[in-house]
Amino acid sequence: MPELPEVEALALDLKGRLQDRAIVKIHIAAFSALKTFDPPLSALEGTLVDDVTRHGKFLDIHASGLHLCLHLARAGWIRWRDEVPTIPPKPSTKNPLAVRIVLDNDAGLDITEAGTKKSLAMYVVRDPLDVPGIASLGPDPMVESFTIEVLGEILQREGRKQLKGVLRHQGTIAGIGNAYSDEILHAARMSPYKPAGGLDDGELKTLYAAIRDTLGAAVERSRGLHASELKGEKKSNLAVHGRTGQACPVCGDIVREVSFADSSLQYCPTCQTGGKPLADRRMSKLLK
Ligand SMILES: [Zn+2]
């Protein structure tokens, strides 16, 4: 799933390609992705793109006073086409194409979603705050006003909740998902299960620096890359996320994972949990 750094880079890449271009036509192949009906999707046809920005993990295409907001979810992605096919796409369960945006220079944008679990979401609104997922976002960790004091207050408020869940909850802090929360906690050398309210001043400083440095470095690396290059870039720079069984790049210990119903987290025991593996209910159930 694209998170803050990838969506930031996508917004920048798309801004360069879409700004001042007119949207000529929008073809929708996956109707379930469109979550709004007023204004209709067709209201975007004939508009000029003014800007492309990011809210948390949402992309926002600004066009003549309207906004097309996109949440790519787990398997959604964007593919740029220098020339779009002239035949409109047919709705199909096999084709990952969800939406195609055609521009006045015959180039265009395919928004795709792979896999069977469809969660790509698209909203046409007059104000991005009309999108519930955007209106409820917590502060963005990359803006200047996200100070160490702001993080400290958030952690105090979350109290006994575990850091892993606090970091990736969009209503608490915007833009961090499963991958970067693993990476941030590894950089901060903290257990994913550590209670948010239990950090001392030194630990708060460490976690704050880990958030800004991890995301900042990923944004820096992703900047200027095209959509097609972003996934590989993200994957090749992760220290623990998605690397179960491989060596921790910091200490050489084996990266371990804890599985949940529909996700998993990865961590390094030596760096993060005093050398002790965390209990994995699914694994212990299998071993019984
Ligand atoms: Zn390690």
The percent range for strand residues is 15-25%
Order of helices and strands: HEEEEEEEEHHHHHHEEHH
Q: Percent of residues in helical segments? A: 25-40%
Could you tell me how far the N terminus lies from the C terminus, measured between alpha carbons in angstroms? 33 Å
Mean pLDDT: 92
Largest sheet properties = 4 strands, antiparallel
| Widest beta sheet: strand line-up | 1-6-7-5
Count of DSSP H/I helices: 9
- Give the overall silhouette: elongated
Rg, Cα atoms, Å:
20 Å
Derived from helix and strand composition plus strand pairing, the structural class reads alpha+beta
Account of the protein in words:
With 288 residues, the protein is α+β, with helices and mostly antiparallel strands. Helix content is 31%, strand content 20%. The protein has 9 helices and 10 strands. The chain has helices at 4-18, 132-135, 148-158, 163-168, 178-187, 201-222, 227-236, 269-272, 281-287, and strands at 23-28, 49-55, 58-63, 66-71, 76-81, 97-103, 108-113, 121-125, 256-259, 264-267. The strands form 3 sheets. It has a 4-stranded antiparallel sheet with strand order 1-6-7-5, with no helix packed on it. It has a 4-stranded antiparallel sheet with strand order 2-3-4-8, with helices on one face. A hairpin with a 4-residue loop joins β6 (97-103) and β7 (108-113). α1 packs parallel to α6, α1 (4-18) runs antiparallel to α7 and α5 (178-187) crosses α6 (201-222). The protein starts with a helix and ends with a helix. Zinc ion binds next to α8.
